[in-house]
């Protein structure tokens, strides 16, 4: 007996093995060890000992002693059945909760679907693509950030920087006609681009080689949509298409449809080498100062784009050593362009999509608030209804239900509610999507894959909602003493009352804030709609036409229109009124040429001021009697006279950036707002057109609008032999400038109504339970002579107090947030405290109505019926 | 619920019955090894516990004879359920044996 079994495995075994099995097993191991020594030798015996101890590790040796654990499948069934039974039994509770929660979840799903789209922009392309934006500043130091850059930018830097892999540039096409056979349409969205554009960006092609497609002049790359539109079932590859009736373009590639989450919006790309500078422009493609192109660069991965930006800044300093304030640049990452460009000015708005960060933030906040309201309802109602479950809980407790099981059961109920709501919400969301999309003009499609992928996440969220909302009531119930619950029923304790007061208060707070925000936004929109821009836009019909048509037909068209008695005036302009005008440098001839100032200017045809009824304060308007006007005259506004420091501006010669030779100021016009009321009126000039323009305005006498429109179309067709045209009312166009605000106002109105509805739904349910508990109290009070109105008071005062407190808390918050929003406008209403008061009153009224509807039903009952059964 | 016996379970249960009142973990393991089949002690114990869980055997602490460092044995005896299970198993085997055509087993 000199050998002993190894000690370590014995110790390990003692650690894990259940006490009652230890002795016999260790004994067997011991005995086996000595047998093995004799049969197999010491070493092997030890090894077997070790091995066996490790193999003993299983559920029999480790598990706790299993007493009491019911693995009865019948009971399991019961745990699942009771929550269902409970939900079916309390129909109004279930209905209120599920409808409220699913409405909230639908809102969230729709909002998050939209946000997902907003955040997905330009993700399909390489990560290391940047846009070079140019900042110019005038002598006063005012900076204007442009999305644009000069035409030399892309070719000029190519090959000069080791980190620069590729550079490319785009120039927008104005409205163009494309013709194939007898099919001719206007196309608004096109770019001139070279091959490196398609090398850099990953727009998948259906046919053709995108790497070389745009190498040769007179080639065009079209999207699938255009291919179908012009070629139908035919293969468009190698076919030619006629652009603007003068340029034959060969189709060299067809692209897949450009996704809606791309900041660039185009249907076709024309080879850059076919681009011709419009007649009259002083600049050419070797210019480093004409800000009219989009430049994209691809840098080698891991390049610090801010260091590259510094190099670009240095480049401009070296190019223009004499400029006091040289161009600066912003090298903007591609995935920042869609949402991060709101400070940038771009003059190709129709070719780009631009997102709005603040609307994303506000939508996220709204979604969360709505969800909160619905969750608060769930918590309040579950807590309230638990008080009616005294008997059930009491019996369960007395029969010895484990606390954890009771908690689990109540949690299961709320999880069930949230899961049912989520499934309902998915269905409703998919059904409602087309309507919502139309209402808010969302530029996105329903993608079932995303819905499928998000499903686990959403279900997880449902689980979380269920647990969070069920936690408090379940803890409350599980802590109740069984016998007590059976004996006297449950009474609401102070804690649960305070909680529900707090949650109701929060709901009211959210609702009041949203209503106030709605009213403020509405006020501001009204101000924008009703404030005059300083021009007369009524009875003006605006048309958008092809620039070359305009050159050919405008004079004859105008002449034929003016013969009609209804037509009062006809004019045209390069930029439509209501959109920002291009900014250029101006300087007074004879003064220091470095004293160039930046002002907005556009080209207008004769009779522009008359058409829009803009007054002249000095001098005269453009006139055909002065032959020199079209090349030598300029009209400035009062702001501009001030800006240039001219006391007596008439007759002064000024140098206007993009024109050949100086111009003489012939008139000073009243200040009018040529863009929108987001902006203050700035210094501005107008000149007669030197390029073909696109916009025509016809002022008609008041009368039958339709006949006027028909007349204009008729005249246009007869002058041009049937060229197409588009018309809109100037007023409609100007109202559309505030589209973003209008959409926001729709959204907030909708959601605040939802918030109010959900809050009241919760209130309604809560009151129902509270009153149910107090039936006897009401009965006794009535017997003792309480009046209906005093009973109503009794139940309402709690909520009136809560509404008042909520509105007090909401006041500073709403004031702060709405002031921030209003500050975006140059013309703004002041925050209206009346709106807050109104919101509070409305909410008080609605909640009182809710309460009294419930209360009256009970109060009007005969107290005998309530008190009899005791 | 019908309790099904596995092959190894049946073997162990048989040995518990064979070594009536003297059966414990190591004795059964030794018996199996004598039949020319190698097995780990832990497997024997685990199976015994499983049988106990199914109610086919019962255990009780016994004596501490042998080189066990004074530790007692856990003795197993077969219960009524165990006996019925063994009997059913045997009968079903026999029934199958009886229905083998004589021709198949010829020459063994």
Describe the structure.
The complex is a heterodimer of chains A (870) and B (108). In chain A, a hairpin with a 3-residue loop joins strand 9 and strand 10. Chain A is globular. About 1% of the residues of chain A have low confidence. With 870 residues, chain A is α+β, with helices and mostly antiparallel strands. With 108 residues, chain B is mainly alpha-helical. Chain B has a single domain, classed as Arc Repressor Mutant, subunit A. Helix content of chain B is 50%, strand content 9%. Chain B has four helices and two strands; from the N terminus they run H-H-H-E-E-H. Chain B has a two-stranded antiparallel ribbon with strand order 1-2. In chain B, helix 1 crosses helix 4. Chain B is elongated. In chain B, 29% of the residues are buried. The mean pLDDT of chain B is 87. The chains are: A alpha+beta (870), B mainly alpha (108). Chains A and B meet through helix 2 and helix 3 of A and helix 2 and helix 3 of B.
The name CATH uses for the topology of chain B is Arc Repressor Mutant, subunit A
* Strands of chain B, total number: 2
**Helix share bin of chain B:** 40-55%
Corresponding CATH architecture of chain B: Orthogonal Bundle
Principal-axes shape call of chain B = elongated
Structural class of chain A: alpha+beta
Radius of gyration of chain A: 38 Å
Number of domains of chain A: 5
Number of helices of chain A: 28
Question: How many domains in all of chain B?
Answer: 1
Task: State the separation between the terminal residues of chain A, measured CA to CA.
Answer: 85 Å
Tertiary shape of chain A: globular
Radius of gyration of chain B: 16 Å
Percent strand of chain A: 15-25%
Q: Write down the secondary-structure element order of chain B.
A: HHHEEH
Q: How is the main sheet of chain A built? A: 13 strands, mixed
CATH class of chain B: Mainly Alpha
Distance between the termini of chain B: 39 Å
Q: Overall mean pLDDT score of chain A?
A: 82
